[in-house]
Design goal:
disordered N terminus, two-stranded antiparallel ribbon, two-stranded antiparallel sheet, mainly alpha, 332 residues
């Protein structure tokens, strides 16, 4: 007698987020928990203006992290961004002091950052030099040019710049933001569109995943590798303009170590340093996490500001370990 076995129906698992989204979700959870801890510990922390201040105080860093995201997605790195911020503030302050029209100043600053990014990308692509070495040279070049312009700080006294720096935008609920916040959010929206809805953005991810495979597919990898450094240079110079509005001065020592803050925000936001995985929105949340930690320490009042660096270092190590775990699970 033959026994007929009934086919076993597969058991449906619950919905699971793709592994590439897990670091971003983890970053958002960390942000919510950190902000929630501050809300419980300190009166007035959980207010709309505190959230708005996170964007106001970090608008330049958001723009900087957007440019760094493009570079890291291709598996590269850009160490020059902090020096480009300083150079941008110096060019803006010196040009305004010389009587240049503000519009011409903005164009000159953005063109300088983009040109520097283009030259670094060209060297990386054409000569096969490691991005770490090329952008390190760019960092020294930009910082040196700052001291060529002036060793002393240059105050920005232009009425147009000062009025823009002090302008506010009223939101419902009595919350106010500044024009740099709007500029930063526009940059984020444009970057997200480019990365996810254009051929250039898809090629960025392909180059980060496997440049050799992308080349075999006929993708223009060279143009993209150069392009991401142009984008990074543009974002760095734009961040420099926003930082000049924030500080109302140009100074050769502005932005020291800011490239590390940008890299930390991108990594904490879920981008793999090896390339191919990451989101602009994750980088923005990474900036907000760093800003929340700094706000918590300022609310506490007795801790040194260096504790911000200690906490960021711990978060960075934790997220790198999380990324390695996800990569291993994906590989298996």
């Amino acid at each position: 007698m033959t026994t007929v076995l009934e086919p076993q129906l597969p058991v449906k698992a619950g919905p699971r987020a793709p592994s590439r989204f897990l670091p971003v979700i983890a970053t958002f959870v960390v942000f919510v928990l950190t902000f929630g801890a501050g809300s419980v510990a300190y009166e007035g922390f959980a207010s709309g203006q505190v959230v708005a201040n996170l964007f106001i105080d970090n608008a330049f860093l958001i723009v900087l992290a957007v440019g760094m995201t493009f570079v890291i997605l291709t598996g590269g790195i850009d160490l020059s961004v902090g020096s480009v911020i300083a150079l941008s503030t110096m060019i803006a302050a010196a040009a305004l002091r010389a009587g240049w029209p503000p519009v011409l100043v903005v164009v000159a600053v953005l063109a300088t950052g983009s040109l520097l990014g283009f030259l670094m990308g060209l060297v990386i692509h054409k000569f096969g030099v490691l991005p770490f070495i090329v952008t390190l040279a760019g960092m020294f070049l930009a910082r040196g040019l700052c001291f060529v312009i002036s060793v002393e700080s240059i105050s920005i006294k232009d009425k147009g710049f000062r009025s823009l720096a002090t302008a506010t935008i009223e939101l419902p609920g009595g919350v106010t933001i500044t024009p740099p916040v709007v500029i930063a959010l526009v940059v984020v929206a444009v970057a997200a569109y480019v990365l996810h809805l254009t051929r250039f953005g898809r090629t960025v991810y392909a180059v980060g995943g496997s440049e050799a495979s992308a080349r075999l597919m006929g993708l223009r990898t060279g143009r993209v590798k150069v392009g991401v450094y142009v984008i990074s240079g543009f974002c760095s110079s734009l961040a420099g303009l926003l930082f000049a509005l924030y500080m109302l001065s140009g100074y050769s020592l502005h932005g020291v170590g800011m490239e590390l803050d940008a890299i930390a925000a991108v990594v904490v936001g879920g981008s793999l340093l090896s390339g191919g995985v990451g989101f602009v929105v994750g980088s923005v949340v990474g900036v907000l996490v760093l800003g929340t930690v700094q706000t918590l320490i300022s609310f506490q009042g007795t801790l040194s500001s260096w504790w911000t660096k200690i906490v960021i270092g711990g978060l960075l190590l934790a997220f790198i370990a999380l990324q390695r775990l996800i990569v291993r699970r994906s590989g298996s």
